[in-house]
Design a protein that fits this description.
mainly alpha
């Protein structure tokens, strides 16, 4: 994919930038992933089909780079969804904004495994091991 991007070769059926961002993110290269999503957003922003979820993806990159204020601004620009709630929940914790943590905690839903894992991670970070374990156990029973 990087070769195609450098050579300015368009792949016939899909845009390469979302995949470049996805792969870079999952390889731990958050800066490269952010740049791919940034380029994608600037390219698609004016189009009718622009999906604001890319703001959330950019926010994830900034969060993992430790740039929490930038991550917060980007997350707030994204669509309201479970990913946005989880991001804002963890960002508020990193920024030591307890009122916001409690507010976002109310948006965490039992029906999403990702939300439950996020809540368990928060408990674990705060050394609330029993609370974290109580969340992890039913998830492990469901899906080993």
């Amino acid at each position: 994919m990087q070769f195609h991007k450098k050579q300015n070769i368009a792949l016939p059926k899909f845009d390469i930038l979302p995949w470049l961002g996805y792969c870079s993110f999952h390889l731990g290269d958050y800066e490269k992933a952010f740049k791919a999503y940034e380029e994608l957003v600037s390219k698609l922003k004016t189009q009718e089909k622009f999906d604001k979820k890319f703001y959330l993806y950019k926010s994830c990159c900034k969060y993992l780079l430790g740039q929490y204020k930038e991550a917060q601004e980007l997350a707030e620009s994204g669509p309201a969804c479970p990913l946005q709630s989880r991001l804002l929940f963890h960002i508020a914790d990193r920024l030591h904004e307890e009122n916001k943590v409690m507010s976002y905690h109310q948006n965490i839903q039992d029906r999403y495994v990702e939300d439950q894992l996020s809540l368990a991670a928060m408990h674990f970070q705060r050394n609330l091991i029993k609370e974290a374990t109580d969340i992890y156990k039913p998830i492990l029973v469901e899906d080993r």
